[in-house]
Amino acid sequence: MCGITGYIGPKQAAEILLAGLQRLEYRGYDSAGVAITNGKGNMTLKKRVGKVKELKLAAASVEGTVGVGHTRWATHGEPSERNAHPHVPSDESFALAHNGIIENFTPLKESLKRKGYEFYSDTDTEVLVKLIEDVRKVAKVSLEEAVRQALTQVVGAYGICVTSRDDPDILIAARLGSPLILGVGQNEWFVASDASAFLEHTRQVVHLNDGEMVTVNRNTGYQVSTLKGVELNPEVNQLEGTLEQIEKGGYKHFMIKEIMEQPTSLGNCMRGRINVPTAQTSSPVSPKKDGSGGTLKPDIRLGGIETLIGPPENQVMLLDKLRAARRIIICGCGTSWHAALVGEYMIESLCKIPVEVEYASEFRYRSVVLRPEEDIVMVISQSGETADTLAALRHAKEAGCTVIGICNTVGSTIARETDAGVYLHAGPEIGVASTKAFTAQVMVLAMMAAKIGQGQACSDEEFSDVVHGLAEIPAKIAQTIELNDAILQEVGKVYRYAHHMLFLGRGYNYPVALEGALKMKEISYIHAEGYPAAEMKHGPIALIDNLMPVVFIATKDSIYEKVKSNIMEVRARKGCVIAITDVGNDELDEFCEYVIKIPTTIEFLSPILTVIPLQLLSYHIAVMRGCDVDMPRNLAKSVTTE
To answer: What is the pTM of this model?
Structure first.
């Protein structure tokens, strides 16, 4: 949600800032702008509504070696050039780009108006700019100190980057609740809300924490400090990933690339974490041997939960604490919430521990009764920066609970602030509609459930079935795509003009129905709803007619016959049925318009396979409807405001 780029160094800033903004397009935006200082007391400001390519036409020739850029996702004020960032003060002496929301902008704005300040935009960001201007004027301090003092008056969330017209040798950035990263190159420095903006230039990064700011001087380097002025010496980290991972690699869209990558991404998710007793598997997971050359028993190793936590004088093994927990609470938003629902079924099945799944956005505002000695909280976020999930994390920590993070982005705020956690290792996900992150989240939750239950409520036979089933998943996803991509394109042609769709599943696949409906809404703009199949009779059945496509997840599991009865109820009302079932099951062929068949796996792991056809279906329908698949309207990849 919004993107910031900043650069200071020997190169022309325009090319670097604009390329960085293009890398950040996936975050969602409606306008873009840059401010570039040329070192001669001149600062050039360019803004455009629409895509970065429009801004590139206007700003590519602007000269200067320091500047900031921004892609705006409108919150305060409509998409327009006057509301686009960067924003400048009355004397245009500096420019500021801002991610986040200034919650107390109204009283601040009224106070500044009484002092005679005028406002040209509708944004909360311009209020911060004028506040910095006022502090600088009244206190007669440097720009750096004015930024510091102004931020102490702000309530809300921000990630900001500031360039000065009169001092082209500095670049200032600060964060609170909105991600910001400093890239450290050879006599050049980069600021961005996501490291993908400068990955081609450097892999050395400093992650700013909340309440920290950095001042970069092209002659002396950078200094990180708190808003109170305490100087810090943060660690410089090496980024993972490659430039190729954030490019389309010959695919038309990032989304289809990421769908097709899932055999590899899930192999990477499991790599080094599961031991299988034989080599008779087509997965990338290798069998492990004991010292005598014999084959080990099936096992799962998750260093993220097999670790000591707590103060040095009173450390405990996290895995033991999980096994002793009276309740596990899982928080997430959107797709991550759906993965959490699957995790609820998995943990309760294999561990016999009660699980509650909470919308992160609601968790901190309800009077949730937390018992720190008995409850463990898990938070799930692909980016590791989701504002509501971060708020839930901090709420749980304040209550004294142990908090475990499940995220994809190494070094993200959630990864740094939780007591422990497990990375997805799915690789960068650029498409706004999550695909490979969802399946990786479910896979991590499956491994966690099996490991927590191992030797406890989970029998050796159940545990072995899960390990073998996990090892086979990558090959079965590849088979699912191969069997069904062409069929789903045909289904897309038939139903691309639908106005409404219904997605139904039961048990482990009820959350998959929710996820399938979300994908359809996100990228095709077709109204879609997901329900437990049995709930259809409690309302949604009134909507069914010959114009309502109904997607059933009907794998041959423990409740297959129940789902089959639900299909017959839809057929009796002339509904159009698309069913997802197992290869070899021909019972549904005569009752359904289309039957999508997938390889059989254990019921526990079926969501990882059943979601694949739903991802493909939503993708093909969206493409046929002419939608912008990777950047759907009004959506952002990383939601960094509440």
So the answer is: 0.83
